[in-house]
């Protein structure tokens, strides 16, 4: 399943905000998903059946988690056919890393290819115009890496300059945008294809009373891929969506165990600390202030309140979004794009920020087509939080927004 953003109607509609010369812009977005759609209401019974688990306490806990995550649907690579061919994946203590990587490596390349092709169709440029490829995944382990496999699958030039970001987790999508921005701005005329692709196959495990935190992943995470084309100085046939200004990355000392993942013979063993939402709450405001201050005096970006900004936030979970809203005093609708992405796709790791940005494009387009009198926010923040704990952020402009009313 693939999707593109920037259709013919959008391409014909001139941006309300003019891009600044030399500044990186997101010119197109796209995504793709595996065929297996999972309805949250059926997750508990399906998972317990597939793993041959009849523990009533684990079932009750998973049922509760499935409700609190606010997820309604997700796409996953895992299927009954895979479990039929690889029954050992649902058994405890067996060395299955080879099988998992055989499935995962193929799946992430296919999804990344589909998302990239969708994005390239939306962009409208020639494949030969892609000068750089930035590939992000925490779901594979091989060399040559997935960046080369994706370049070959797309038919990119052998001279395309490739970068791969591995095991960056949920912050990987924004990290990829940061890297793509730097490449686009340092190489005049460059067109950078960013692709992210993730699957939970490497972490699929039967439930155990000794690992109750595993159930969080069962209730929350999804699979898929995302893509974006980034470049400067758009041509008349290109349709810039967001302009990327200052970018920051920060790790929080002594928090590296809060998001912990380790590759083992049984797959990746992953654990999220319960304190994660509280740590993000305690540090997010200072990070946002520093990010905004990077552009102090530029177009009045820093004289805006938090509610004057748009917020494209990776939805790591509902508790993280709620803590952010409370700490920053955000209005109830400010994180709507993030909550909708979480509802429809779950936490799809690095991909999810693409889905959030797509939601924002759709919201802006809907208001423009309906001639809504409401104002769109020109300036905003693109944020994600990953292992480290690592904060990634970009101060951006929504180029599809209409001018603010004085």
Describe this structure in words.
This protein has 406 residues and is an alpha+beta fold. Helices cover 36% and strands 23% of the residues. It has helices spanning 8-12, 43-50, 56-68, 80-85, 97-123, 146-154, 172-186, 214-220, 276-293, 318-328, 336-345, 352-369, and strands at 2-5, 24-32, 36-39, 73-76, 132-137, 161-166, 191-198, 224-231, 242-251, 259-264, 267-272, 310-313, 379-386, 390-398. The strands form three sheets. Strands 1, 2, 5, 6, 7, 8, 9, 12, 13 and 14 form a ten-stranded mixed β-sheet that branches. The N and C termini lie far apart (43 Å). Mean pLDDT is 92; it is low at 6-15.
Count of distinct strands: 14
Secondary-structure class: alpha+beta
Radius of gyration: 21 Å
Beta-strand percent range: 15-25%
């Amino acid at each position: 399943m693939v999707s593109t953003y920037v259709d013919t109607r959008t391409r014909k509609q001139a941006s309300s905000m003019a891009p600044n010369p030399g500044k990186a812009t997101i010119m197109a977005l796209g995504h793709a998903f595996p065929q297996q759609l999972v309805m949250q209401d059926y997750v508990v019974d399906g998972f317990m059946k597939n793993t041959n688990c009849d523990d009533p306490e684990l079932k009750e806990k998973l049922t509760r988690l499935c409700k609190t995550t606010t997820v309604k649907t997700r796409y996953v690579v895992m299927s009954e056919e895979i479990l039929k061919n690889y029954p050992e994946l649902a058994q405890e203590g067996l060395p299955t890393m080879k099988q998992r990587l055989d499935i995962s490596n193929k799946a992430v390349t296919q999804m990344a290819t589909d998302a990239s092709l969708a994005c390239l169709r939306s962009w409208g440029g020639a494949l030969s115009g892609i000068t750089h490829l930035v590939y992000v995944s925490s779901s594979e382990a091989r060399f040559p890496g997935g960046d080369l496999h994706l370049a070959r699958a797309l038919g990119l030039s052998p001279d395309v300059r490739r970068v791969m970001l591995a095991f960056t987790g949920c912050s990987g999508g924004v990290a990829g945008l940061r890297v793509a921005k730097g490449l686009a701005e340092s190489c005049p005329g460059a067109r950078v294809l960013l692709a992210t692709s993730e699957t939970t196959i490497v972490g699929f495990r039967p439930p155990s009373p000794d690992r109750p935190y595993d159930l969080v992943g069962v209730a929350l995470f999804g699979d898929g891929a995302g893509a974006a084309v980034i470049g400067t100085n758009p041509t008349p046939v290109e349709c810039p969506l967001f302009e990327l200004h200052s970018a920051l990355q920060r790790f929080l000392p002594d928090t590296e165990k809060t998001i912990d993942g380790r590759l083992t013979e049984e797959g990746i063993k992953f654990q999220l600390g319960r304190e994660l939402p509280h740590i993000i709450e305690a540090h997010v405001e200072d990070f946002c202030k520093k990010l905004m201050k990077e552009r102090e005096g530029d177009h009045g970006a820093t004289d805006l309140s938090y509610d004057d900004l748009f917020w494209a936030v990776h939805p790591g979970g509902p508790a993280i979004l709620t803590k952010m809203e409370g700490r920053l005093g955000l209005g109830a609708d400010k994180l709507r794009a993030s909550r909708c992405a979480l509802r429809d796709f779950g936490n799809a790791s690095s991909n999810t920020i693409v889905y959030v940005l797509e939601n924002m494009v759709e919201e802006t387009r809907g208001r423009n087509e309906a001639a809504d009198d409401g104002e769109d926010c020109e300036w905003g923040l693109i944020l994600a939080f990953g292992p480290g704990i690592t904060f990634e952020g970009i101060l951006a402009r929504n180029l599809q927004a209409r001018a603010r009313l004085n």
